Amino acid sequence: MKSEKLKPTAFLWDESFLWGLMAYKALKNACLPFDLIRAEDIKCGCLKNYAVLFVPGGWASNKLKTLGDKGTTEIKKFVRNGGNYLGFCGGAGLATLDGIWLLNIRRKPTKDRVPSFSGQIHLNITEHRIWQGLNSSPITHHSSPIFHAWWPSQFLIDDKNLRILATYGDALPDSFSSDLNVGDVDANGSWSEMEKIYKINLDPERLKNEPAVVEGNFGKGRVILSLIHFDTPDDANGAGVLKNLWEYLTENSYELKKFKNSKPEIMNLRGLSLFADNNYCNQKEKSSLNELVSSVNDLINLGIRNFLWFWRNPMLLQWRRGVRGLEYCTLYILTKEIALLSNDLTINETKEKMLMQIRSLLIPFVEKANKLLLLERFAMTNGHITYEACDTPQIQEIRKELFSTSKSHGGLFKELISELDNYLYCLIAERQ
């Protein structure tokens, strides 16, 4: 592998959805060089041109299916021959023994871990280049830096050859475990009592000293797996680590010098004003996109009005246990981003057909989701429900149609976001 001729990073887009877009924005904001690739590109041998493969969050099992045997073989060959692998959350899970076996790590079963933690948390870090220039937290009088974890898995590590770069420290009061605010429960409640009610592990103390970022080798290549989202919006520490990771893993690539002295772009994650002074979209496409945006806006506002969720940051909701908040959040963010990117790109006949297919799925989905959310809201007043457990037959029927019975994406929702994701990829690719 002639590293001096390699491009820095291949960013695997497939089966990441919200997490892929979040990572894309974070890397663009940090002016870090990368090329978006698909699983089919990996199967065709594209990794030989890169120094690093970056895999963002998302369901590792779905990523594995999309890659197939050919794709996973290509990734293993790439790393074995000296390529580097960087995975966040689901991308980290993909590289474990439960995925493609790059590192000798397993993931804890759901019953043994804290499955629903989200938000800010301190990290206990070991000396390494990726932590250079970080800020500690004077607000909490804590010496360890703060980062974000979003519903992470947990690692089981027995291999002494692996280097643990960080373990979890204390969770901050504004974090959540399931739909419980950590600070509120710490001050006025009982985690043990709540765990009896929720029938899952909730106490963030269970995370303390568990591995969060790990480094190892597969053949000649480096592998870094992180359960922390360094790509979280408005996270200065995370942005710093992203730059450090790029320098560390791509140090021999020929585009390295291009970003060392670059200035970050100003990216407005909240600004989603549509079609201002637009000379490209004709009135038909404007109307169609506005209809889609209006539908998802109404869906999100229905949830807010009924106390089912609120915004944690510009890209992530916090929802009550009993509804599938992440799925609705994903739908909203992808649709909004498509509308924003369509603002200055020509919509040709192919894209118009894709847009019509999205509409044929999205409008019926939203109509049924509105009904489902209200039914779930009423069910919450009569008893404790989860995303999968509810005694109301009507709720069970709609849930199965919209999401299937799987925790990972399924049903009409999977069809819809796959179409949205393909369309979004086309729009982004046109800007590269």
What is the name of the CATH topology of the largest domain? Rossmann fold
CATH class of the largest domain: Alpha Beta
Q: What is the N-to-C succession of helices and strands?
A: EHEHEHEHEEEEEEEHHEEHHHEEHHHH
How many structural domains can be distinguished in the coordinates? 2
| CATH architectural group of the largest domain | 3-Layer(aba) Sandwich
Largest sheet: 11 strands, mixed
- % residues in beta strands: 15-25%
Pick out the low-confidence regions: 261-280
Helix content: 40-55%
Look at the structure and give the mean pLDDT.
Answer: 90
What's the CATH H-level superfamily name of the largest domain?
Class I glutamine amidotransferase (GATase) domain
Number of helices: 13
Shape: globular
Structural class: alpha/beta
What value does the Rg take, in angstroms? 22 Å
Task: Note the topology.
Elements: E1 7-12, H1 18-29, E2 35-37, H2 39-43, E3 50-55, H3 60-80, E4 84-88, H4 90-94, E5 105-107, E6 117-125, E7 146-150, E8 155-157, E9 163-171, E10 176-177, E11 180-181, H5 182-188, H6 191-198, E12 211-218, E13 221-226, H7 236-249, H8 256-260, H9 283-305, E14 309-313, E15 316-319, H10 325-341, H11 349-382, H12 393-403, H13 411-431
